Amino acid sequence: CPKGAICPDDGMEAPQDCTPGSYMNFNSSSAPTCLNVTAGQYQDDYRGHTYKVCVAGRFSTGFGSTACELCGQGGYCDEPGASSASVFQQCAPGTWSDVVGLNASAGCHSCSDGKYQPSSGANSSEACKECRRGTAGEVPGVAICPDCAPGTFQNETGHTACRGCPAGSYCEEGAALPMPCPGGSWSNRTR
Predict the structure, then answer these.
(1) Measured between alpha carbons, how far is 36 from 145 in angstroms, rounded to an integer?
(2) CA geometry: angle at 146 spanning 137 and 111, to 5°?
(3) Do residues 55 and 41 lie in contact, with contact meaning Cβ atoms separated by under 8 Å?
(4) Whole-model pTM?
(5) Looking at residues 18-47, what average pLDDT do you find?
(6) How far apart are CA 14 and CA 2, in angstroms?
(7) Can you name the residues that pair with 116 across neighbouring β-strands?
(8) Which of 64, 69, 91, 166 sits at a 20 to 30 Å CA gap from 49?
(9) CA angle at 52 for the pair 48 and 58, rounded to the nearest 5°
(10) Which of 67, 65, 66, 129 is nearest to 96 (CA)?
């Protein structure tokens, strides 16, 4: 009996082909059934003589699988031969992915400068929010926009830099607007 088939009865005219989801990896004259693929594997051909391993980005959970399922949006599955969706890794805060079947963290996109995204597993660029007033996002892929340093402010959302506090005013950390110096004091510094 050839590989990929079984011959459970001695008087058979032709071998019985293994169906998708199963295989026979050796010549057998007496095997009663084909072997089922196990979790993390699949076989999509008739007369399969070996199993196939799910590639990274996919998984199969049961016996006799004919295909592997794609890992969901918002993350990736980097292990080949995965037997469950539990290998799913969420994209880190500051990043997102709308791709199904992603196989590496490099496929998670960073939010652009001036935006932030505080949660793991975001599946859309819409999860990236503009930095609020009093903050600035100078680099892409941040979970939170840092506050403007003392002596600086930012009165608009979505900016990448804070502005120097003008003379005659002061700016505390995270300032959205400069504050005038109190009566009887002055400042000629811009920071």
Answers:
(1) 52
(2) 35
(3) no
(4) 0.79
(5) 85
(6) 10
(7) 129, 142
(8) 69
(9) 140
(10) 129
Q: How far apart are CA 81 and CA 65, in angstroms?
A: 12
Six-digit token pair at 169? 């005013």
Overall size of the chain counted in residues: 191
Token pair listed for 145: 């926009």
| Residue type for position 80 | P
Residue 158: both structure tokens together: 């979505």
Q: Tokens 């699988």 identify what position?
A: 65
Give 78-124 as a DSSP string: --TTB-SGGG-EEPPTTEE---SS--SGGGSEEPPTTEE--SSS--S
Give tens-digit pLDDT for 91-118. Answer: 999 999 999 999 999 999 999 999 999 9
| Amino acid occupying residue 81 | G
Residue 13: which pLDDT band, with cuts at 50, 70 and 90?
confident
